[in-house]
Specification:
4 domains; 5-stranded antiparallel sheet; 13 helices; 20% strand
Length: 570
Amino acid sequence: MSLDTFTITALALELSQQLVGGRVQDSVELDRERFGLEIYAQRQRHYLLLSADNQYPCAFIAPDKLRRGVQTPSTLGLLIRNRIEGLFLQSIQQPSYERILIFQFGGKYTTLQLVLEMMPRRANLILTDGVQILECARRIGPQDNRYRVILPKHEYIAPPPQKDKVEPNQVTPAVLEKLLRQHAKEKAHVALTKGILGFSPLLSKELIFLAYQDVDIKAEAVNAYQLHAVYESLIPRLLHSEFEAGLVLDENSFPTDVFVLPLQHVGWQPTNTISEALNQLLGTLEGEGAYEAARRPIYEQIQKARDRLRGKLISLEREATAQDEIEYLRMSGELLLAYQYSVQPNQTILEAQYDPEGEPLHITIDPTLSPLENAQRYFERYEKKKRAASQIPERIAEVQKELEFLDQLEVDLMLAENWNDIGEVQEALQKHGYWQGKKYAQPKGGKSGPYKVIIDQFVIFIGRNARQNDQLLDRSDPFDLWLHVRGAAGAHVIIKTNAKSVPDDVLYKAASYAAYYSKLRHERKVDVMVAERRHVRKLKGGMPGQVLVHQERGTLLVEPTPVDKADVLN
């Protein structure tokens, strides 16, 4: 996601209308890059999120109170709390055609600014007194940028202006003709993005699409006058603040960005406000922002562990395919024994045929050793390689079990609903030797149990992590039904049968839960295995929750459905 300058202009207008004149009553630090302000304006509380996240830099009004996500606030978080709380939001400004918002706060004796720079990969939130930097989310020293140092006690210097670009209100057919000629071999939308201030790839592609119904057309094939006619029908609406907020959708109707005019070259879903669009795109941040901040380092450790194991698996698979090399050692030893008397002094290569119908082998000989000693060396290397090769299938199976367990932990982390659930995933990583670095502190508390629901008098348990899955296996009876998504990590679901026949509607409902609480929860339809618990055995030497199914009762194709939290029993 990358908000362009027109969207930020619309955002500044929207936020100003709702927040300017309001008093900052509280502040929270969701993580080191995202901060929230509670602003009382127009007789109600508003929750402003300021994100300097490099991937999703933005600002918007969240629908609900933001939750603190760090236990020890950063220096910037402390300064916002101590210096900004109690002040009034006086203005929200956007430097011309820049992806920057300047929030100015004032009191009786103080004026401070929070500068939110929303350039992807270079996002930052900077607290200044109007001249000097007090603190920032991301420090940039002279070794990183000689022109622009972002450090406390340094003067705040705005990003350098974009050179050699034309302002949108100065674009004529002649200007377009020049741009198209300069970038003749490139795609036409690239020429617009490179040459016009404030133009994002999204907006440039829309213009080209409206003119030619083809976003990939080359600049040399575009007529400047035809393009300018389309330009004049669209761009003045942006310049005159005739904004319409909405979500940009991909081919699967998933939101990928936000824009302020309806688009035709991609999917489009209108929203009432830009804040609403951003909130839908990034997810509701009540609690989730804090939890997501806690999940991130754990996701990273899972990925690092997975990368190490995949590298190990590739190495083992290469060794497993080297059977020809092992056989070559054996045959070389046997041929040296058979031809030892024909080997001449100082000879370094023996060419001999093992298979009458095969190619001759070229056998390297150490001239300092006798033919018998050379043969013995080949046999020793052969035995060593053969022993190692015999262990490879078992070692590959062990690595695959570990990779499957990491997949399960990733699903566990995705399903985690509170601090203890998140901490439990980290605990599992530490226990099995995957965690590197300092422990990520989590509040203490009891571990959560499986979900328990009752449908038509049948009790259903849903395990939402590896420990709970293992727990359900231990506590279920032989004739209970076990359900699990096929071919992916996910929940173990147990239907307590009490030796009764389970109706199809109960079975399908339980299967839909198994599908939802799995890695395949976003698929439209999912295959779910069903087996009697007596035919499901814990995998010998496996990780928690890993099983072997000796006999299936069948497979159900279901739509993933979450449990209604109101139906969950304690």
